[in-house]
Design brief:
Elements (H helix, E strand, L loop, with lengths): L11 H8 L5 E5 L5 H14 L8 E5 L2 H15 L7 E4 H11 L11 E3 L1 H14 L6 H12 L7 H16 L2 E3 H14 L1 H10 L2 E4 L7 H10 L6 E5 L14 H4 L1 H4 L4 E5 L7 H11 L20 E6 L2 H15 L6 E5 L5 H11 L3 E3 L9 H14 L4 H7 L9 H14 L3 H12 L4 H18 L4 H12 L1 H9 L5 H24 L5 H9 L15 E5 L8 E6 L16 H15 L2 E10 L14 H5 L5 E4 L2 H21 L5 E4 L3 E9 L2 E6 L2 E6 L6 E3 L1
Parallel strand pairs: 1-7, 1-8, 2-3, 2-6, 4-5, 6-7, 9-14, 9-15, 10-12, 10-13, 11-12, 13-14
Antiparallel strand pairs: 16-17, 16-20, 17-18, 18-19
The chain binds a DNA duplex through helix 4, helix 18 and strand 19.
Length: 698
DNA sequence: TTCGGAGGTCTTTTT
DNA sequence: GACCTCCGAA
């Protein structure tokens, strides 16, 4: 058989993966081995060479971004429209299936999708109702564990979980887990529905299989039950989401779970130098729960990896900054990684001070911004008037003089009448007389949009009109000017425009751009499209979890201290420690040319403790690592500056001019012990002298 | 009754 | 610093 031209771009293992079509296939793809390429080419090969209809192909990715990229690549490869091809995350795919089969479920077709914030609000609401003082976050964890199939720790937890589910049903809402669970339920209880999809999807592809959970595994079993052509790609050494229920056993046991599975390994690495690969390989060999593989490359040995000690997080950031300056442009070749989001501050401050451009990826995601969430809550309430959680979020945003007391009275009324908050208003106002006209006005506002929505007015028109009617921009300016930096306020306004822009784009691109569809589209979309991101020359800063799938010339792995990375919560159990090790393995293998690892002796979040270097540093092979010890000199300098700073701080008085690394020059308005109120160019900030690095200025 | 300020607590990772 | 709760001013 003559080879199809598509296959010429692939190495022998990749080619084998692409052309192994029948039955279950597991591709164990090491970091940088061309995993995405294999997936893309396989789908393209099916369509082009084997004439499979796109409607019969399913591809599940880990993020929406990955889904979009894959679709684009296939289109570029084949120059065809990929409409009909099912590509998306488990969550987005499940939403589509659920909406299409909503008649089988006890929900209305316009159900809301609740994110973590909404979930916490539900938990809090129940806690109020039963007058418990448990902490919402811990309870939510328990709920999620029960949903993932674990035994509840106590009877009480189980009862609470039932209450939570009941509440969600009343609110006509599903959380992220429900999207998967209800789809599974749909398949299990309605053979015809399952048959339909199992029949449709002749070829199933799953990316990042090592991070699938139990429910996702079961969904795949159902979907592949007819044709059995399931092709999964993953790397057991990159499984880093067990806290979210990911079960590494899915990939470890694939051959047992799917009989006659073929296994193909991709071990040739096209990304990193020999030294980097050696470090990564030796490190990960300390793990016991793995299939075992050895990455190799034809490339050069490259530079050795650097381990650098610094005094504290500030000096660590200074070191990283000076290294980046030394490497020179473009800055976009540099990736700075840390274990926890809280570590970003020092880098922000130092990069700002030095005028180094940067972008933080994922710290607060676009859809988690308050102003964005508020607007979306309006839309959710309009689409689903039963959504009391969204109601409570916006009933007094912008302020309309409806406070806690009013809401309590309305809630009680709604509860006795068995009504949802919004629908309870007319009766409530009639019942209580003219006292609550503010509520009535809110009701009329929402009703107007509900009617527009029923008339199938498009999502953009509704949102546009809403933003104007609410005078939302003015509200933001009024609330935030004076209390936060100018750029931050502008950022908020930009976010409002961005969500409006997304609605506009949606309306242009979709043939049925209703509010429901728009909400469906954005609810499972958790990351912002980074249109401008690549264009500007900036340093990228993010958590290691966010770095999966990326590659950069220079990678800085910071905060390598015991208790930080590995995180202190993972020190006691072997399997958790192994996950931390995999996390570091992911971090190292992002690098093409250089890896620079840093640790600090002190850190303000762990104030007063002397931190030890990460145990993982000891596991690195000595011959490829340089221990850079300029730290002594730093330490002396540091002591001097610390003393100077301390002197300066006690000398600071009301009226003095000061300099702050982030806010610039300012003047002290009020001083009260350690606390100061300072007027900067961008507004007034309340600061603590202990943490804020204020310097006296002229 | 609402709202803003003061003061205390906490900080893993996220589709 | 972010987030939450409590308390006093308007």
């Amino acid at each position: 058989m003559t080879e199809h031209p598509l296959l010429q771009d692939l190495n022998p293992e990749q080619r084998k993966a692409v052309t192994t079509i029948e039955g279950p296939v597991l591709v164990i793809a090491g970091a940088g081995s061309g995993k995405t390429r294999v997936l893309t080419y396989r789908v393209a090969y099916l369509i082009k060479a084997l004439k499979v209809s796109p409607e019969n192909i399913l591809a599940v990715t880990f993020t929406n971004k990955a889904a979009n990229e894959m679709r684009d690549r296939i289109e570029n490869l084949l120059h065809i429209n990929t409409k009909g091809l099912f590509i998306g995350t488990f969550h987005s795919i499940c939403v589509r299936i659920l909406r299409a089969n909503i008649d089988y479920l006890p929900y209305d077709k316009n159900f809301s999708i609740f994110d973590r914030d909404d979930q916490l609000r539900v938990v809090k609401k129940i806690l109020e109702e039963i007058k418990s003082r448990e902490t919402p976050k811990r309870l939510l964890r328990h709920i999620q564990r029960i949903k993932a199939g674990q035994e509840p720790e106590t009877e009480w937890h189980y009862d609470f979980y039932k209450k939570y589910q009941q509440k969600l049903l009343e609110l006509n809402a599903m959380d992220f887990d429900d999207l998967l669970i209800n789809t599974r339920k749909l398949f299990e209880e309605h053979e015809n529905v399952k048959e339909f999809y199992a029949d449709k999807f002749m070829y199933i592809h799953v990316d990042e299989y090592q991070d699938t959970n139990r429910i996702q595994y079961e969904l795949l079993r159902h979907l592949s039950s007819k044709h059995r052509n399931i092709f999964v790609v993953g790397d057991d050494d990159q499984s880093i989401y067990s806290f979210r229920g990911a079960d590494i056993r899915n990939i470890l046991h694939f051959e047992k779970d799917f009989k006659d599975a073929k296994v193909i390994r991709l071990e040739r690495n096209y990304r990193s130098t020999k030294n980097i690969l050696k470090a990564a390989t030796v490190l990960i060999a300390n793990n016991t729960m793995r299939k075992g593989k050895t990455l190799w490359t034809d490339g050069p040995s490259g530079e050795k990896l650097v381990v650098h000690e610094s005094f504290d997080e500030r000096e660590e950031a200074e070191y990283v900054a000076s290294k980046i300056e030394e490497f020179g442009r473009p800055f976009s070749n540099n990736l700075v990684l840390y274990r926890t989001n809280a570590q970003s501050r020092a880098f922000e401050e130092v990069f700002n001070k030095r005028g180094l451009p940067y972008i933080i990826v994922g710290s607060i995601k676009f859809f988690e911004r308050k102003e964005v969430k508020d607007l979306i809550a309006y839309l959710k309430l309009i689409a689903n008037p039963k959504d009391d959680i969204s109601f409570l979020r916006i009933v007094n945003t912008p302020h309309r003089g409806i406070g806690a007391k009013t809401m309590k009275t309305l809630s009680d009324y709604a509860l006795t009448e068995g009504l949802h908050l919004l629908e309870a208003i007319p009766g409530f106002v009639e019942y209580t007389g003219t006292k609550y006209l503010k509520l009535k006005r809110f009701y009329d506002l929402i009703s107007k949009y509900i009617k527009l929505n029923e008339k199938k007015e498009d999502a953009f028109s509704i949102l546009h009109d809403l933003i104007n009617t609410l005078e939302f921009a003015e509200y933001i300016k009024k609330t935030y000017s004076g209390q936060e930096a100018r750029e931050k306020l502008e950022g908020r306004l930009e976010n409002v425009n961005a969500i409006l822009g997304m609605a506009q784009e949606f309306v242009i691109n979709q043939n049925n751009p209703t509010l429901e569809h728009f909400l469906e589209h954005i609810s499972v979309q958790t990351e912002q499209d980074d249109m401008e991101m690549q264009q500007k020359d900036r340093i990228t800063i993010m958590t290691v979890h966010n770095a999966k799938g990326l590659e950069f010339d220079n990678v800085f792995i910071t905060g390598l201290e015991d208790g930080v990375f590995p995180h202190k919560s993972a020190l006691s159990a072997t399997y958790e420690l192994e996950e931390e090790r995999r996390l570091l393995h992911v971090a190292i293998t992002r690098a093409k040319k250089r890896v620079i690892m840093t640790y600090a002796r002190e850190r303000s979040i762990r104030f007063g403790e002397l931190l030890l270097p990460s145990r993982f540093i000891d596991e690195l092979p000595e011959d490829v690592v340089i221990f850079d010890s300029v730290s002594k000199r730093y330490k002396e300098q540091r002591k001097e500056t610390e003393e100077k700073e301390r002197r300066v701080q006690t000398e600071l008085h009301k009226g003095d001019y000061v300099y702050h690394p982030m806010f610039g020059r300012g003047r002290i308005l009020v001083k009260n012990g350690d606390k100061v109120k300072v007027l900067f160019m961008d507004g007034i900030k309340n600061l603590s002298l202990k943490y804020a690095k204020l310097v006296k200025s002229q």
